[in-house]
Specification:
With 463 residues, the protein is of the alpha/beta class. Helices cover 43% and strands 16% of the residues. The strands form 3 sheets. The protein has a 7-stranded mixed beta sheet with strand order 4-10-9-8-7-5-6, with helices on both faces. A 4-stranded mixed beta sheet has the order 1-2-3-13. Strands 11-12-15-14 form a 4-stranded antiparallel beta sheet, covered by helices on one side. α11 links the parallel β7 (224-229) and β8 (259-263). The radius of gyration is 22 Å and the shape is globular. It binds pyridoxal-5'-phosphate. Residues 64, 123-125, 128, 157-159, 230, 234-235, 263, 265-266, 291-292, 302 line the site of pyridoxal-5'-phosphate (PLP).
């Protein structure tokens, strides 16, 4: 692996400057300052290098985004070329740039057939702000302005702007800043392990979808604009819904004319083994949010795929849509996205996840069920979750105050593996280019960290 560190500061110097000036997202500033950040200086393929020179297997793809792996010259060259030719121009004033036009065209090809138009944003959160504006505008134009409520789910993640965090169902986020904003309501999530253990997964999936119908009837269908969900909840803990869930959600949305929005920010561009999560789960959304994997995270880009049902109304009857971002269709971001999608196509990466590495990950994760700490494993394409439990037989969970997930994550950090903890659910979403041999390497690290966590549990008498 090549070393590309340019600045030569010691880890302590980086940490001191970081603590003095840098407020990190989703971070307790004081405790991080006391502990010091892990400073990542370079990366190649699926491996990171920190400022002490340690090599780390990045089983989270940066933050669910570096799907084609680090150090891809195609993406780097596309950015360099576009920066040289035209680093920026907007698309507000009856103007456009070639990369934005070409990306719009290519996105219409790789997304499901109902999608022929795109609205670009700079991130997934902004994309979901656009969703709120657009679904309400759609019903306005159709003469039903009171049809404005958007239904989402507890423990959903839809970003961190005012609208994104409101659509999301993270109670910690709602506690700060007066959220959710009006007109957004939540139903329970399709999380079998927590809510459905007394029934079969498929029966539970139908029950969980039924909560949408109950909410629509409670509010009145003439008040409900849309339902939004991630095909697989990512940040919520890689919660793979029962197979029965999404087709039933589709039926309910169709029955009441409610728009169906798929937040594909994580699931899009191959993560689940199809190009989009809605294809894996068999539903047909009216709108899709995307970001992260569209550029493999090399530069920020997001957006909304707008289905024909909505696009036709907005184009034919909508007049001016009073919404947009300076960086909507940023030419450098679009050039990188084009290069990224072409890599996915040329190397048949999505097919590989579907036919080879996804099933292999599923097989390997299933073997973790022999571990005394593991109560459930779930995978979908190249995302996976390991639920830690106190008692395998009863599936009793640990006292949350013990933060067993964080104990396990600490061992991962210490042993050269980036794995995330969501409560006591340990999750991975490795780059889509990970090989079978690298999955073996990751599994060995996961096992080692589970063993170290189990040793802690026994030493401290936590179970
Ligand atoms: C990350 C994420 C977002 C927010 O994207 P940002 O680019 O961080 O604003 C929205 N939805 C889902 C499902 C995500 O995982």
């Amino acid at each position: 692996m090549t070393e590309r560190t340019t600045a030569q500061r010691s880890t302590q110097e980086w940490q001191a400057a970081d603590a003095a000036h840098y407020l990190h997202p989703f971070t307790d500033f004081k405790s991080l300052a006391a502990k010091g950040s892990r400073v990542i200086v370079s990366a190649d393929d699926i491996y990171l290098r920190d400022s002490d020179g340690a090599k780390i297997l990045d089983a989270m793809s940066g933050l669910w985004c570096v799907n084609v792996g680090y150090g891809r010259t195609e993406l780097i060259e596309a950015a360099t070329r576009q920066m040289t030719t035209l680093p920026f121009y907007n698309s507000f004033f009856q103007t456009a740039t070639p990369p934005a036009i070409e990306l719009a065209e290519l996105l219409a090809q790789v997304t499901p057939p109902q999608f022929n138009h795109v609205f670009f944003s700079g991130s997934g959160s902004e994309g979901n702000d656009t969703i709120v504006r657009m679904v309400r505008r759609y019903w306005d134009v159709l003469g039903q302005p009171e049809r404005s409520v958007i239904i989402s789910r507890n423990n959903a993640y839809h970003g961190s702007t005012m609208a994104g965090a409101s659509l999301g169902g993270m109670s910690g986020m709602h506690e700060q800043g007066g959220l959710p904003i009006p007109g957004i309501v939540h139903i329970e999530q399709p999380f079998w392990f927590e809510l459905g253990q007394d029934m079969s997964r498929d029966a539970f999936g139908l029950k969980a979808a039924g909560w949408l119908e109950e909410k629509i009837l409670e509010l009145g269908a003439d008040k409900v604009a849309a339902f939004i969900g991630e095909p697989v909840q990512g940040a919520g803990g890689v919660i793979v819904p029962p197979d029965s869930y999404w087709p039933e959600i589709q039926r309910i949305c169709d029955r009441y004319g409610v728009l169906l929005v798929s937040d594909e920010v994580i699931c899009g561009f191959g993560r689940t083994g199809h190009w989009f999560g809605c294809e894996t789960f068999g539903f047909k959304p009216d709108l899709m949010t995307f970001a992260k994997g569209v550029t493999s995270g090399y530069v920020p880009l997001g957006g909304v795929m707008v289905g024909d049902r909505i696009a036709n109304v907005l184009i034919e009857q909508g007049g001016e849509f009073n919404h947009g971002y300076t960086y909507s269709g940023h030419p450098v971001a679009c050039a990188v996205a084009l290069a990224n999608i072409r890599v996915l196509q040329r190397e048949r990466i999505v097919e590989r996840v579907h036919d080879d590495t996804g099933p292999y990950l599923a097989e390997q994760f299933a073997t973790l069920m022999d571990h005394s700490l593991v109560g459930e494993v779930q995978t979908c394409g190249l995302m996976g979750a390991v639920q830690l439990v106190k008692d395998k037989a009863t599936l009793a969970t640990f006292d949350p105050a013990l933060s067993i997930g964080m104990v396990c994550r600490g061992h991962c950090f210490g042993n050269g593996l980036i794995m995330r903890a969501v409560g006591d659910r340990m999750i991975v979403a490795p780059p889509l280019v990970i090989t079978r041999a690298q999955i073996d390497e990751m599994m060995a690290l996961i096992r080692r960290c589970l063993d170290l966590t189990l040793a802690d549990v026994r030493t401290h008498g936590w179970a």
